[in-house]
Amino acid sequence: MRRLLLISLACLISYHPSFAQEGNDSLEHRGLKFYKKPYPPAKGDLFILAVPIIGYNPSNGVLIGAGAAASAFLGDPSTTGISSSIVSATYTSKKQLLINIRSTLFTKGNKWILSGDWRFLNTSMPTYGLGTGPQSSKLASNGFEIGDNLFSQRISGEQMMSFKQIRFYETVSREVWDHFYLGIGYHLDMFMDMEDNLLDLSADPPVITSFYAYNYKYGFDQKKNTLSGISLNASYDSRDNQNNAYEGQYINLSFHINPEFLGSDINSTMLYTEYRTFIDITKNHHNMLCFWGIGNFLTSGDTPALVLPAIGEDQYGKSGRAYTQGRFRGQSMLYGEAEFRKHLLATKKSPDFLGMVVFLNAVTATNRDAEVGLFEYVNIGAGAGLRIMASKNARMRLGIDYGWGNYGSSGFYVRMNETF
Fold this sequence. Notes:
mainly beta; Porin; two-stranded antiparallel ribbon; 3 helices; 19 strands; about 50% strand
């Protein structure tokens, strides 16, 4: 009955792909007798779930599709972290096709970590210019100067655009000391058939969007962009479970080099940093205080607008609850989130069956053209949610969250595993 409840919830609850795009639940692969499986987990255990996706949102209209998630132990669970992968495909009434494959795999004894983020998107999304603060709410409301005392038309709402995107990110890291890894990665983003819906250069005065103005100033093509490069990575991961950590820390430093000879439009470098920590207040994981931080910086050169640091662009697209993906974007971005996780209800078969979370996040982003620096403006999001344990062995939980943010923004989220 619990398995039926989880699947029913996933089908009935509204799903927003621009927020949390994947789910991660579990059924046992062997004989499909998941809830009768003995505890603790063993090497080779595989947990799989296929979930229908049905929902509606203004950006996508009606959407329908399916998601599948899998977690497995590729070695002895006492010495090997759990590996996790997520696949989803959706199609919308606005003729959008969204295909995502994300994975983090631990080999036997945690000697190697393989981390992937692969996407094909034929989609549309609103853009809001760069930076946090009032100018992000007003967008291009003052227009852009196109001559002496001449300005383009004002834009007071979101700026919709459509495009196709291919993303291939893959990083391979090797353990060099206990929990400490060094690695190298390749990262490719290709944007094609970009259409800036509000742009109208023939109008008098013309309608110039933030996206067009950015591309014009920094020398990017208005119809297609490419970012291609390698990354040098160092990470520390002492979490006891990536799906739902009860203890440990995660630190990641990734320096991206995007040269023109590898296909990038313009030479650039970027630095991505991330930190997570998990504090078990009552020493029984029933009251957890968890923190997540991201720092993402353009350190030299210029990149296409759609790959500048932004919320919702982390590997699993989970940052920025209360806002749409990419709502805040800039040449530099700092993001922080705190979450309190509390146990609510136990059952005979699942001592951690039901829980709740309360979260608070903050983001600040730069806009160097408007002279907006880090911490000059900070936008806040907050909310609460429920957690339903789907797999004690894999420690997978179904999450249902609602968040509120600035400028009347809000979001409803259905996702598997913890947000971080």
